[in-house]
Design a protein that fits this description.
The chain is of the alpha/beta class. It has 17 helices and 21 strands. It is globular, with a radius of gyration of 25 Å.
Length: 507
Amino acid sequence: MSAPDHRTLFTIFNRNDPSPTARALRNLSFESAFVLIVDEKNFNKKHRENLKRLKTWMTGSPRFHVKQKNDPHGFMEWPDRLWKDEWSWSALLEKNIQFLSVKEIDISTFETAGQRDIVDLTSGTKKQCADIIRAIDQLGANASFVLQTRNGHTLNLSSGEELKNTIPLSFRERVWLSSGYIVDFTLRGEPKSGKKWSDCVKEQTKSGKILPNATEIQASLGLNHPINLEVGYWLEHAVTHMMSSWPQISESYIAPRLINPSCGRSAGACFFTISASLKSRVAQKMMSKHVKEIRRIGTIRDFAEKSEAVLQFMRDTEFSKNESAYVIDRLHSIEFDAVAFDHDSGHVYACECKSMTSITNGVLSRINSITKLAFPTYGTSILVYAGSASATSYGVHKISWPELSSSTVLEDLPLAGKIYPSAKSNGTQIQSTNRPIAPSQEQLGELLLILRKDPRDYVNFLKLLEKNGFRAKGTLKRINQMSEELGFTIDYDRRDSQDWIIWGSEK
């Protein structure tokens, strides 16, 4: 039995999603805790990685999650100039938490349990919970059974008492626990601004596009610069601010970026992104001191030698403050237009924003793919556009942006048939007057090297192309034509996974 004044927490490691286990450790009061790892011998790669992420989460920082190695393909330690302190969170290291691996749950697991102890059942399967209750009952320990509820409370099953959790998991913590990405963002949503976007004058163009009155909303927001309605950035801001005003939303962000925790992989991919973007005058001006070296590295044919040169450049170059910010903004593998997060339920609303009146199947596929990758358990796909009709179809919420003024818009959406045009339909996206061009063979090769350093699925690769100002149409055919020269094959059936390109062994 535990000492009279000592409280021990028993909780189960959820091998499919560590978040419930983390919620219990964060919110329950205890002097010591046991995290039960059931049947660890039969864990697959994903389960083992989830366990590793939970242990990293306890340290308060993903900075040292990836084991550092000194090899050309490897990993380098995050240098101070490429790391932001705000990417971390509060640690639990001061608490006495032990991981206990057991083949199965039986009475021996709880032989030290006492009357003041707590048993959290949130993370366990039905069988595991039944085994725990049976074991505690056989011991006569009279410990308290609790559950973490979906509305952000802890329910004491023994007394019926329900208490609001005081320390919910942040958006950064949730993303880390569920998918292992580091979250970077610049701007947060503000409810006051959201109300102004909701109340602003809306006008419909001849093409059917619904737009805000630019002069009126600029004055209302107190901006000293005009809002350009010809590009879609205004919509990202409107969506983020409007959703931040919903009562269930705790955090919302404009264009949050998700970064691979391996500094080597992220920095390497960042280098190739910068290299591919040097056709832009903006990139040339920002990196003017380094253009010569970047292009020199680009001429190296051997992949191992090039990788070593890239890592050395990213590790040793003394970037200025502005250059560091420019580089950090390009470390990510995934980017959303807008995200809203509910602390209580842990639900993430991932938004794609399109200032257009019709939506193609490709847009639907992309938002679904990215949402599932980043938020596999508690993610909702939302596509906000400038059209007039809103509906739910195939699990995707297509919303006319003015309707975001209602916090219940997702619940109120009607079900629809196939609201997205088929591949053979005449439904087209609104195109910019500056039509994107296809990348050159050299540029496409540089972008493919990003995939080698930081694998991403086909949809996200197309998004990378578009982000760099290139046309995505016909890309797959061109990639296939380059496969023999660059030494890879394409698995067409696995384009929704990160390993759709299979690279040959290095010489």
